């Protein structure tokens, strides 16, 4: 029996070692010619994906032009603004360019380039709104986007004008909150708001730009100083040769660069973005399959540890299930993707971090129903097997597990469905699954309702098919 315990424990140790190898075996962030640069690709006209699924915008084109001028390469990593900030702080990324305002607070943790753009904050309301000045905001709600100059400005004048702040992660969500009447106004960087209005967003700007703030390229404080020097040198060259003026004029001119497609119907949006949607769907499915495989291995081992007649292993199983079921998936993802690299100085690719996150979280639930499935088998079955002289391991393998598996199979399929849905949360660390793809599409055309409807239908179709499969399996198991 002790051998069985030892083999189970060895299996668990091997799994833990594999996970550690995935995270610790990644090459440290010492890029020589190619730098990993984070950006928020939902901040047009500075960074967004065009209808050809290419990342464009003032920041993107300027960075690529500087890289070409200075002889280095960049690999753009699309993520949220907050995700990019944390990734740079943890060393996952070498730098970020995302319309990031240079402030004293941020200078405590980042080194900034020389300013490459200066922007002001404006207030926007619905076309028929009676709110036309800051004085009209007293007692009302104001929408802002986290991490922006607009959010900082709103906080600085909140007490003076007596309004309430509502915070969003995406610009389109902020705009929709005003359009639907939940908030009276929103604060946004002037060029970003003007782009949105030009795209057809039903808002109007009612104030002049204020709190003009400089944007800068950022690296972790004390790190990547060579990259910072090359950016500054390249920026000076771009301004001297007229390339900087050409790029800004391209996106901020009278016409500007925008999604001018006339077909904004559901079918038109599907046709225009089918390659992006297909790519996001494929990433979602692939991530789900890989994650559920490792989650099953982890869950079965932890679940079996919970039913062997050994108090230590029982306690270990209970503790692991308690920890990983208790942690919110978002917190676990950020801890693995940004927290661990901060401690180890080792990079973890977003896909690997996402897989490990789902493995622990979903594996904890699998472990729980593995324990439940085994415990659901009548205890007399084990007693009868042992009375016939079968050792514990053989009795478990030959008698208990075949009966327990029949109970567990539907739960395994249901867990696959849950894992598929949980992949959407991993957009926070920049994985280009279906939800992140939707955010990028919306940033370009600001058709939030229609795009999210398309995304929802895709999820529903897949989940419905999996549910039918689960029901079919349950009927077969009962036969």
TrEMBL record:
Residues 281-470 form the ABC transmembrane type-1 domain. Residues 1-31 form the signal peptide. GO terms for molecular function: ligand-gated monoatomic ion channel activity. InterPro entries: AA_ABC_transptr_permease_3TM, ArtM/GltK/GlnP/TcyL/YhdX-like, Iontro_rcpt_C, MetI-like, MetI-like_sf, Solute-binding_3/MltF_N. GO terms for biological process: amino acid transport. Keywords: Cell membrane, Membrane, Signal, Transmembrane, Transmembrane helix, Transport. It is found in: Cell membrane. It comes from the Bacteria. The chain crosses the membrane at residues 285-308, 320-340, 451-473. The keyword Membrane applies. It is a multi-pass membrane protein. GO terms for cellular component: ATP-binding cassette (ABC) transporter complex. Belongs to the binding-protein-dependent transport system permease family. This is ABC transporter permease subunit. It comes from Secundilactobacillus folii.
């Amino acid at each position: 029996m002790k051998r069985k315990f030892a083999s189970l424990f060895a299996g668990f140790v091997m799994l833990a070692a594999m996970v550690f190898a995935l995270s610790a075996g990644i090459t440290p962030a010492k890029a020589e010619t190619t730098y990993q640069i984070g950006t928020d690709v939902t901040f047009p006209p500075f960074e967004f994906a065009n209808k050809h699924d290419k990342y464009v915008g003032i920041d993107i084109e300027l960075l690529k032009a500087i890289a070409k001028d200075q002889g280095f390469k960049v690999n753009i990593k699309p993520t949220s603004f907050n995700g990019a900030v944390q990734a740079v702080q943890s060393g996952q990324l070498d730098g970020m360019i995302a319309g990031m305002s240079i402030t004293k607070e941020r200078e405590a943790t980042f080194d900034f380039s020389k300013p490459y753009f200066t922007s002001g904050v404006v207030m926007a309301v619905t076309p028929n709104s009676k709110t036309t000045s800051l004085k009209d905001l007293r007692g009302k709600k104001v929408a802002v986007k986290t991490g922006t100059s607009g959010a900082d400005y709103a906080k600085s004048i909140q007490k003076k004008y007596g309004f309430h702040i509502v915070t969003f992660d995406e610009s389109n969500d902020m705009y929709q909150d005003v359009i639907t009447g939940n908030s009276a106004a929103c604060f946004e960087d002037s060029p970003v708001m003007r782009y949105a209005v030009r795209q057809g967003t039903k808002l109007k700007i009612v104030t002049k730009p204020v709190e003009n703030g400089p944007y800068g390229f950022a690296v972790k404080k004390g790190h990547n100083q060579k990259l910072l020097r090359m950016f500054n040198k390249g920026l000076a060259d771009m301004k001297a040769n007229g390339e900087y003026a050409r790029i800004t004029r391209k996106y901020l001119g009278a016409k500007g660069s925008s999604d001018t497609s006339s077909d904004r119907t559901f079918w038109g949006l599907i046709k225009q973005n089918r390659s992006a949607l297909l790519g996001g769907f494929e990433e979602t499915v692939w991530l789900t399959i890989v994650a559920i495989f490792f989650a099953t291995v982890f869950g079965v081992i932890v679940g079996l540890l919970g039913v062997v007649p050994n108090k230590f292993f029982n306690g270990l199983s209970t503790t692991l299930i308690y920890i990983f079921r208790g942690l919110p998936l978002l917190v676990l993802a950020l801890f693995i993707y940004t927290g661990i690299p901060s401690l180890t100085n080792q990079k973890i690719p977003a896909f690997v971090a996402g897989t490990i996150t789902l493995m622990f979280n979903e594996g904890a639930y699998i472990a729980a129903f593995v324990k439940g499935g085994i415990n659901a088998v009548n205890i007399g079955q084990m007693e009868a097997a042992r009375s016939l002289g079968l050792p514990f391991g053989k009795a478990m393998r030959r008698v208990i597990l075949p009966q327990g598996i029949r109970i567990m199979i539907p739960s395994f399929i249901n867990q696959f469905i849950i894992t598929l849905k949980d992949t959407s949360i991993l957009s926070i660390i920049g994985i280009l699954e279906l939800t992140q793809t939707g955010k990028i599409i919306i940033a370009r055309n600001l058709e939030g309702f229609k795009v999210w409807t398309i995304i929802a239908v895709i999820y529903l179709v897949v989940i419905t098919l999996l549910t039918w499969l689960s029901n079919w399996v349950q009927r077969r198991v009962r036969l």
